[in-house]
Structure formats: structure tokens, C-alpha cells
Protein 1
Amino acid sequence: MEKIFERLQKVKSIAPLIHHITNYVTVRDCADITKCFGASPVMADAIEEVQEMANIANALVLNIGTLNSNIIESMKVAGKQANKKQIPVVLDICGVGATSFRNNKAKELLSSIKITVLKGNVSEIAAIAGFETQTKGVDAGSVETNIIELAKGLATKLNVVVVITGAEDIVSNGKDTYIVKNGCAKMGNIVGTGCMSSSIVGTFCAIEKDYALACVSALVCFEIVAELAQKEAIGLGTFKLKLFDKVSSLNESVINEMKNFTLI
Amino acid sequence: MEKIFERLQKVKSIAPLIHHITNYVTVRDCADITKCFGASPVMADAIEEVQEMANIANALVLNIGTLNSNIIESMKVAGKQANKKQIPVVLDICGVGATSFRNNKAKELLSSIKITVLKGNVSEIAAIAGFETQTKGVDAGSVETNIIELAKGLATKLNVVVVITGAEDIVSNGKDTYIVKNGCAKMGNIVGTGCMSSSIVGTFCAIEKDYALACVSALVCFEIVAELAQKEAIGLGTFKLKLFDKVSSLNESVINEMKNFTLI
Amino acid sequence: MEKIFERLQKVKSIAPLIHHITNYVTVRDCADITKCFGASPVMADAIEEVQEMANIANALVLNIGTLNSNIIESMKVAGKQANKKQIPVVLDICGVGATSFRNNKAKELLSSIKITVLKGNVSEIAAIAGFETQTKGVDAGSVETNIIELAKGLATKLNVVVVITGAEDIVSNGKDTYIVKNGCAKMGNIVGTGCMSSSIVGTFCAIEKDYALACVSALVCFEIVAELAQKEAIGLGTFKLKLFDKVSSLNESVINEMKNFTLI
């Protein structure tokens, strides 16, 4: 059952603590959008404190956008504590497919932590699934495959929820597979929308144990915000600004009217 | 005597260099707001250069928001040079109370550098004072104590100016204690206002040797800006943007009309 | 021959991948502006992956704003691969003249990589040329010298294109020297315009082999954007926002009408 607005309300009333270990490019965007949704973001990556921070958190969001060896070790420590605490762990495999270092480190994380949600664009997810592909830095490259089968297959194989973002997003836990059609072209024209949506995914997973539905709810909400922002945006700067403004416009009627996703 | 506008003018005419060793989340906000006030921000944390950078600076701002062991060592080196040069050192104990690593490193800094201004929200300051408390990541947790007595007592004990930020801010050097009532609720709804106010505190301390008054002046100015921003803000994105726009609206009559603080 | 608009079109149609190893203060601004111009930014500094990332990139932008020893080593590895691949390398010597660490590391980069474009403000370039000067953190200090001769001489000596930014920018490859008069005062009042212009310089160098003309084209475009932004800006926050909005206003007639540079 879909209860997107109820989940959004639950985020606001609980204000979950979302521990991020993320990149230094979009980190402020991630903190800002998490806060706008009513959750409490904390960014902490020192290996001496990530276990303790993950222990007081309600979800852990890992993003390898500007990874290095030290940060990967911190991710493992935080991730293991998250597993022990049984809080959800979102892994955004930003840039996988661009370098073998990213590919290897992403696989290391997948084998050493129980990941809840594995998220990326199509060439990132294809690369982790073993397809021959080339991610263009952190932007999607072209991939020839059936992305619904890709999501379903990988979700089953890894026992995670797979989220593939793009013009249409795919969310699959292997059994249930959703297509989210909200969103707008401008999202791909600015930096940070992928990372921000991972923060929102982590936020909703903190309050909803059906993680596929949590992901769908997060994507629908964030992408409705983007559609509202695009309507008023006169350029890319204003569009980004309005992403933060328009979160407060999400109410029950707006969500019910604008939500656009299907279970297939 | 309060001469807030004169101090603001002095910042503009001197354009002090404010050396920051700070977190990677709000670092751009800190640089932007410092620049908007007419000072010159520089962010430098490599241990090989922080002594030289602190040596040409007019104030040093330390913020442990995304601390790690290397950065703490750089803070110590920069801090010692600042002490030698007799320039003010502001320490924002961002996130203290959330992990023992933060607690320990904050105490290490306090014992190895002569800090001028110790700044945090109520649960951070309570944690450093030895109260049992729990900071929620970098957001304030609940603390049951008389915060005025907390500020006064800690200021006397550590021989620093203590600044506790919140709906009302407390500034105390142990003898003089001020309550600053400027500010608005939206400040707590976005990321970075605490860090930015530390930058402004450092900026005013660079040009005013009565550090308690410098802190009050900084908080009053920044929080008037926030009040002006809130009046025109339609959402959290716009509110943050207008924080930078409205600095230029600070003139003598606006400050005199809107300033709201008392010496108790 | 000047064909600024054609170059801008070429950026959009090719969408070059611009690999940045840069500072953590303005990194998001650099990513955003690169994306606004239609190129694809990637920020990656781990020594394990920079060779591979530079290998798929169309230009490399190095900025030492928040340098440390590890990042300098990564810059060398990336730079050597860029040289091997024969893609342009832009070096922004942010803050040189402020500390001997910066001076030394900038010289190390110049001696170990073949730099295509060396870029800085007047006190940074004067410092690297061996003049006695003092950079104020990352802001320009005063220098008494003929800056045109400084640019020409250094370009010849180092066999690079030298770009000196300021109220008027100088671009010289030793033979051809240009003065770019576009831009506006507000550019110096906010943080990040220098770093962003380095990203745009790298972007244009990725698609134009006459690197001096590529630099001129980049500066003219970015500074026209700044002039358009200033016309509508009510404060420094709005000005920065509109830098991103106004990139889409760059068309052939706007560029031809507003471009303001001379070959001397």
C-alpha cells in the first residue's frame, strides 16, 4: 500500500538522524535537503567516531563520489555498526564504471556490509552488475540492456533494493518492481540531484521498513519538488534554489495529484 | 558601551583576514558570509602551512564539524601561532556530545591552545562542561540546566568568552553576561547558521578587543540579517540566499532599531 | 580569429569531461558552473584513481586553494597522464604568495607537469614569477609591476599561457597578449569567481587548441554572464545565484554585443 504523505509526516514527527559519509562536492546540498524534509543530517567520516555516530543514527547514507581509501574504511566501520543496530544503509555508487578503483571499492563495500539500498544511474548499476560500460565521470554513459531486468536481477542476486535513477526511475527488491515517472529534465542539468535523492531515500528508509516503498516514496516526493521548482525556475541557479523552497509545498493533495509511479 | 555599527564599519575598513580551519559541509557558507561582511576569508588546513597562514591572519576560527586527527593537529599548530601573535581564536565545538572522539578532541584543543571564544549550542556547551547530555549529530539535544549559570561558570572556569546559541543566545566572559534576542526560527531549520555565526564572531573579534562585546555585535548583526531575510523568504532555499543579500542592508538606523540584547 | 560563440556551441555539443582536483571551498560552484556551460564535471582526487580519470577526461583543472601533500601527489599523477594523453592542464595557483608551502608546491607542479594555462590574480602570478609580494590569504595583495610585461615574460619563460585575473584580465602566450575588459566589481566581492573561471577556462581549452583564444573566450563568456547577473542582483547572494541562471542567456547576439577584449 502506498501512503506517501503519511511517510512524509512521519519523517517530520520523528526527525530521524541521517548519518552521511559522502563526497565533498554535494555534501552541503545533501545536508540542506535532508534538513528541509525535516530530518537531522550529520556528516562524519573520521574512523575514530563513525561507529559511535552510526550507533545514534536512524539511517546511514554512503556515497563514493569523492572516495579515498580512508573514507572507504570509515564506511565499513559505520556500515557494520549500522548492520548491528539494524538501521538501513543506502549505498550510492556515484561514478562506478569510470575507474577500476571505484568499481573495486564499491564491490568491497557490498561484500563487507549488508546494504539495504543500492542506488546509481544506469551505467553505474550496469557496471556493478558486470556489464561492459563506461560511466562518464559521474554522469551516465550509454548502456544497452533492459534496465527493468537489470534492476530485478541485481536485487535478487544481492538481496538489496536496487534503485536506478534516470528519466524514469526503477525500484526493485527482486519481487516488487516500481517505475517512478516523476521528475524533470532540469534534474539532469545540475549537479547534486542524484546525491540529494540518496539522502531522501535514506531519510524515508529510516521510518519505513518496506524499503522498496520507502524508496518510491522518497523519489516521488523529491521529484514532485523538482517539478514544482522547474515551473518557476528561470535558470539552473534558481532551479536548484527552488528545490529547497518547494519541499514545504508537499502536502497530501499535491502528492496525490502529482504522484506518478506504477508497480509492474 | 555598545557601538555595533562602528564595529561593522571597522570590519569593512580593515577587511581583516580570517583564517578558518573548518568542516567541509558549510565551508562555502562560512567563506561567503565572511566576505559579505567585508572581511577576507581564507580556508587552509595543511599542517605545513597553517602556522604561516595564522601568522598573517587577524583571527583564527576553528570548527570541528567534520574533524579528523590530522585536522586537529593542524588546529593546534595554527592555534599556537595565533596565541603567539595574540590574535583571537574562536572554537566552535560543533557536534560535541555526539561522540567521545569529539568530546576528547575538543578538550585537547582547549588544553593546548588559549581559546578566546568557545561557542556551541546548549547541548554542546553542556557536554564540554561535563553534564550528561546527548547531542543529536550536530543538532542540539535537550539539557536541563540553567544556561546562564552554565555560560558564566564555564567562562570563569576556562577563562574564555562562552557563547551559547539558541532561540536566545548567551554571551558571557564570566563577569559580563549578555542575552541576545535577535534571530528567527528559520535559522534552526537550515544547515550552516551556527557555523556562519562563528565566522562572523571571529570577524568582529579581529577588530574589537572586548571580546564579549565583539561576540554580541557579531550575533546581533548576523541575526538582524536573518530577521530581514525571513521577512522576504518564501522557503528555506530563499531564506539562505537572502542571508547573503541582506548583509548590505545593515546600516546604523537598521541596527539601532532592530538590535535586541541585554546585559544582565 | 575570434569565434567565441562557435566555441561555446562546441562545448555544448561535445560536452567535454572536465576532471578537477580542486579545493573543498568552491568545489560545488566549480561543478555547477561547468555543468551550466554544458560540460561534464568530475571531481576525483584519490591517488588510486586519478590516472584513470584523467585518461577519460578532455581537460584537467588543478586548483591548490586547500592543498595538502596528498592532493599535490595526486595532481602530479593526473597531470602526467594528461600530458601523455595530450589534454590541456589548467593550474590555478590560488593563494600562492601567502605561504611558502603554497609557493613551493606550485613550483613543484610547474616543474613536474607540462602546464597549459597558469592562472592567478596579480599577486599570485607575481609571487610565482619571483617578485616580492604578499597574497592576503586567497585575495590579491598589492604589486607594483607592469602586469602586461609580467604576463608576457612569464608565459615565454615557462612556455605556458598566463592568465592574470582582475578588473581587467591579461591573457598571454608570450606572443599574443589579450586584455579582457568584461566583468564587474561584484565578482571580487564574492567567493569562488576565480575558481569558477578556471573551470570555464579548462572547459574551453578542452575544445579549442589555440589555448590563448580558448582562455579569452572562456573569460569573455563567464564575465558577460557576471555583467548580466549584476544587472539583476539585489545583493551578493542573488548575484551568485544569477551567475548560474544567466549562462543560458549567452547567445550569438549577446556575445557579439557585449564582448570587450583587445589583442595588444
Note: Chain B touches chain A through 33 residues (CB under 8 Å).
Protein 2
Amino acid sequence: MDVAPPVDKKISGTKWAGIIRGEIQQKIVELTATGVRPPGIACIIVGDRPDSAVYVRNKETAANEVGMKAAVLRLDGATSQEDIIKQVNVFNADETIDGILVQLPLPKGIDERVVLGAIDPNKDVDGVGGPVHMGNLALRGCTPLFVPCTAKGCVELLKRENIKIEGANAVVIGRSNIVGVPVALLLQGENATVTVCHSKTQDIGSHLLKADIIVAAIGQPGYVKKEWVKPGAVIIDVGINQIEDKTRKSGTRLVGDVDAAVVEVCGRITPVPGGVGPMTIAILLQNTLESRLSKERKAEKK
Amino acid sequence: MDVAPPVDKKISGTKWAGIIRGEIQQKIVELTATGVRPPGIACIIVGDRPDSAVYVRNKETAANEVGMKAAVLRLDGATSQEDIIKQVNVFNADETIDGILVQLPLPKGIDERVVLGAIDPNKDVDGVGGPVHMGNLALRGCTPLFVPCTAKGCVELLKRENIKIEGANAVVIGRSNIVGVPVALLLQGENATVTVCHSKTQDIGSHLLKADIIVAAIGQPGYVKKEWVKPGAVIIDVGINQIEDKTRKSGTRLVGDVDAAVVEVCGRITPVPGGVGPMTIAILLQNTLESRLSKERKAEKK
């Protein structure tokens, strides 16, 4: 999307994220009123990418606003993989930390899978560190402790908007570990008939035209065309792409993976920005709260 | 299927399983010629279901034929969950055992997920004990140590027959942990565009008609109808259903999930029996050999 959809079609991630953050804040007030510590989230950022710095600052601010403790560790871009993992282990051992994030991308030469894999699964609130959470998401009859935040945010939007998932044809475009794969598994778990399209898909339009729900997560501005969308379909646009715009002071603006004209045929759609983006942080906080609460429940059992 | 397809359409699992078993046997001859022990597989069977007894005996025979050590432990149907897990742990600790199977179904009252979850992931040659292997199968960029045997067998048949998977539209019917879910992830990893259909899918025919490859794994005799199959499509029929047949001495015969008339339109098809069935054991032996070899490689590194 690169223009705001009309009010009756718009699915506002900003609105729902605000509501979810309010719910989290309320639960933390109740928790700390009983005398126990609030949830704690740690974020490790390596190097000085300006976009990563913004993302981390947003997370820190959001965590503080709901009453969580946020610990941000900024490491020099030349930090070795071994030293990054050492810091992960410090947070693994820290009993006041319930969730650990490593901001991606990491500098070149660092193996992200190895670093993410070092996060204690019980603190892996992003859900993509090791294979355990994804495995439990894929296995029927199992419930993962944490689901990747953006993927969970997409499905949460559908649920909060009372959009019927069971029996719907859902097409997910993209098969990344943090969005495409987990969102497909989540929708399948909710009894949608899910098709995953990707760069090797032939005639993607023929798949999309069958879709009641489309989740676009490929990172290509305006990729999904109006001609491919069934009238009334619900569109979740995960893309956040920066494109040139000389009419703006910054010279750029953000657009999604869905072309602006799609709004003419679709039933509902998330805007970019203000759609899935704000949900990611809200779900991150939700996962961190859940991590804290599950520890509290375990302590009570003892 | 309930009649044999014509030779030019038939994908013979019996043939390919025989070839794979020959390959495994050859590798074990080479392995043991260097003076090291052959692979060992343990199978635990609880109770006296006649079908389970046949499956276990087939696995034992097949393992012995390729030169593996097979240890079968038969437990009384009244054995407690705790005692079954104790036996799993005995095999976990046994250094001559590379793969552990627990024959399903377990008697009522036993939690299969808990028992399977007790298998050491390094010996979980069925790949569905814990979430680790499935998680690595779902995560792009990760390679699972073991993939569930029947699922891997389906894809192995396509590969050995040189059927193009990349870019193909594949429809998987069923979403079980041992077939539907892993076969969908495998095909997706091979760059097919995969749709998973199940009991909540609306108008399943409309999905199937787009499919270049159909994997049917729902356990309903003759479920897939000729009218739903695109001319030339490749069909992998995972179903093994026993139906009444008064013309036979036994009074029953085995049929797949695909109706006999499908052979008139499809391009290629696996028969039942003699299709996917024999592949499952061949892949089980392959996984067990791989488990043995990976240990040998680790020992060499030290």
C-alpha cells in the first residue's frame, strides 16, 4: 500500500497494537501489585546501522511504556561472534530477563543461526532462535512456547477483526523463517487451506485469485497486483519498503508489497505504515509477558 | 488405487525400495570392512496388535537383510508409560543402537508424544519424537538430522523418477505429523508451490485440479476422484486402507486414498500396495545408516 485505504476497508495495526499494549500494561500492573518483579527484555544490537538503531529504540520505548524492564546492549560492529554469544549467555543466566532479542541483520561474517541458536529457548521470545518453537508450531497437537512476532501479529489482526480463517483459502507469499513459514503454519493450525507462493512459483496470479486471505511478505514494493486479487479478499501486507518520493522532504516514503490499486477490489487491507509493523512490537511484548508469567506459574507450583 | 496401473504409469516403490536397500547394504559392507560395528536399530512394541506385529517383523527382517543389528523389545500391553520410557532410555544409552522406533499406536492411556519425546533426538530416526527435527525441516537454511520416513519416501520416489518438483504445483491432502506436514515442508524446500488440504478445506477439487503433483495421505479409501485430477498429474498415494472384498480368500484387500479410475487421467501413479509402503522401511534403514555414519564421522574428528 502506498496510500491510506478508506476507513471501512482499513485494518489498523496501530489501533490493535495500542489495545494489546494496554492489555499488557494492565497485566503488568496486576503482576507487580503482588510484589513480584516486572518482565524484563534484553536487546543486543551490533554495529551502527541507523535502521537497526531505530527498531531497537522503538522496542525499548514500547517495553518501558508497558512497565517492562528493558536492557539494551550496544556492541561495536567489530565484535566477534564468540563475544556476541558470551553476551547472549550473560542474559541467558540473568534471572531478571525473560526475553532476549538479537537485532538482525548482524554484521557480515557473523553466523546469525549460531548466534540466535545460543539464546535459551525459554527466553527466545522471537521464536526463531533454535528449531524447537518452529517444530512445535509445525507438529499438530503441540503448542510452541513462542511464535515469531510478525507472523503471530498477522494472525492476531485477522482474529481481532473477526475475519473467518477456518475453511478460508489463504495464500502466503514468501517463505522466510520469521514471517512466511510460521504464518503459513499458524493459518493451517486455524484450519485455513494454505498455499505458500515464492520466487519459484509459476503463474502466481492464478493462486492469488483463489485466495480469501492474502499475506504478502516478500519485500518487493507493490508486487501484488489488483488483477490478482479476488473481490472481497482480505490482505495482510507485511512489506515495509522504502522507495523514492521527491514530493517528500525526506525524499523517500514507505510502501508495502501490495500495489495501491488493490484497495479497489479487496475487502479489507492493512496499510503500510500502520498495519503489521506496530503489531510486531506488541506481540514481542506479549511473548515476553507470557515468558514472565510462565516462570511465575512454575514458581507457584514448587 | 485398487487395481495395478499400466506399466508406463506405475511408480514402483517396490523397485526403488529394493535399489535403496541394495545401496544401504553395500555401504554397510564397506563400513564393516573397516572393522567398525554395523548400524543398530531398536524397536519397541507394546501390546499384541497383529498389524503392529507385522510391521515390526517387516522392519526387523529388512534391517537384518541389509546387515544391520535389529533389537526388538516386545512389552506387555499393560506396561506403564513410565516403564516404556525406562526402556527407551536403555536404548538411548546403548552405544550399539543408532536408531530407536516406538511402534504406534501405543495402548490407550499412554501419551504417545511423551513416549516419543523421550527418544534421544540423535537416535530419533523416525524424525517425529521431539520438535527439533521438524523445526529444522521448517526453517529455511537448516537441515534436519532425520525426516519422517514416509514423507521422505514420497519425495525420494519423485526424485528417483526424475519428476520435476521445482516450480510444480503440489497439493498435499492431510496434515499429519508423520506424512502431511513433513511432506509439504519437503516439497516446499524443493521449490514446489505447496497447498495443504484437509478436512476443513472447501471445494477440494478446485485445489486438486491445479496440481501437477498430488500426495494423498488421509486414510480414506478411494477419496481422490478422477474428476479432480489434471491430465498428466503425478499421484503419490500414501493411503493403506483395508476394505471388504468377498472375492478374496481373506475377505479383504488393501486400497489407497485414490480412486481406481484416476489412472485413466493421471500421468504417473504409485500403486497400493507396492508404492509408498515399501519406501517407508527403506528410508528408515537409510536414516539409521546415516545416524551410524554421522557418529563415525564425529569419532574420526576427535
Note: The beta strands of chain A are 40-46, 69-75, 99-102, 169-173, 193-197, 213-216, 234-237, 241-244, 252-255, 268-269.
